[in-house]
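Homework help board

Subject: predicted structure for assignment chain

Our instructor gave us this sequence and asked us to write out the predicted structure in token form, then describe one feature. I got the tokens but I'm not sure how to describe them. Can anyone check?
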Amino acid sequence: MEHGEEGLNEIFQYETLYEKSKNDEAKLYLDELNRVKTELILEQPLFSHLLSTFQIMVVEKKLAKFAIDKIYFYFSESYIAELINERDHWKGKIKGDLLHMIMHIIYRHYEREEKFDRKVWGIASDIVVFNALWDMQGRFEEKNMWDLHDMSKIPKSLLNKSVEDTYIGLLNYFEDNEEDKLGRNIEDNEEDNENEKQNDLLDIESYSFQNNMNTISQILGTEDLNCDIETLMGLNGNMDKVQYADKLNEGIVFEKYDNLLKRGNMDDNVKKWVEKYFNLRIDWTTELKNYIQKLLPYDMNWSSPNRKMLGQGIYLPSMLKENIKIILAFDTSGSINEENLKLFLNETQNIIQSINNLELIVIDCDSKIQKISNYKSGENVLDHIFLGGGGTDFRPVFQYAESIEPNLVIYFTDGDGVIPTDNYQFETIWMIINDNKMPFGNVINMI
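My token output:
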């Protein structure tokens, strides 16, 4: 089904969850909130487009703190007044709230099966978002910090799980605390068998269950969050419209991820976070190609104008592609088998053949440089014979690179070896066949 502008309008034509406040203070709060949202958009390019698609509404009643639907970020007027009066860190708290709501949308936490209780599902989805945002914040520079919910009361046994598994964990916690009158710590819970987990799902309508879940929310420290995910879950009437909106939101984030990666503006730590929490992974050949294309040097030549544009009466410079020098280094130690070496060489050949004015230096190195081979643009490197089999030392390659000043060093390795400690002026890409980290350069894990 194709959707034009009319289709979008139809999708989002439903009543807002809350009524907008008409107080004069609410207008001032709205201005402040929009300024904070703009700051966050500039700080978080990955979520910038999605953040900008949602409007902010300040509401007077029926909302404890904040909520979200398909169009609006809702903020309680009293909540904002309280934050602003506190003065300290209120902007950071708003940024944390905005990211929290966005993560619920991206993760589709409002899409629930009928057997799931809304309150338990709300707590479980909040815990998942807490965990993801804390992990994400640890990967950013200090200047881009936002205030996040205190997770000290949430046990480790509920972290790093899917929302469904967290939901089951909360049900088990309810059962244990029902028996112990809420006197036992969740860390002491023993894992129930699968049949007991399924039986737990049958008791969610009882008064005792609902009453105890409120208490458990207080114990875990989630009761003061009040992100109204339950109301959002109630919007799922027309699934065609919901699924279309889901794809729209998901596509916005993934498209932004791809654009940032191609431009080289994606911090490696943030990239790893996206891949971990969105199950998103591009193949290493595309990633390597993006890095190389970003580094290709160009220059403008005004003495030889662009002929196509000159014919239209427009005088623009032509683009000169400068020579580019790339070192392609192979870890030929005993820990790397020749099959992996040939596979990487074959895939790399397809990438570098498209580069004009290329000077390619292929280096075989184990504990020392075993062979240096030189190739020009278009020359076949697939007949290269690898030499090595000893230990692993990365320093000889970088010492040699310093003497010839390449534009780029690409090093294929498992990452286990003696690593240089000096700073180098040239770009480095580590092609790692496992999940090892490297202290400098860009890392592409090929697993």
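Reply (TA_rk): Your tokens look well-formed. For the description, you could write something like this. The chain is about 45% helix and 15% strand. That's the kind of observation they're looking for.
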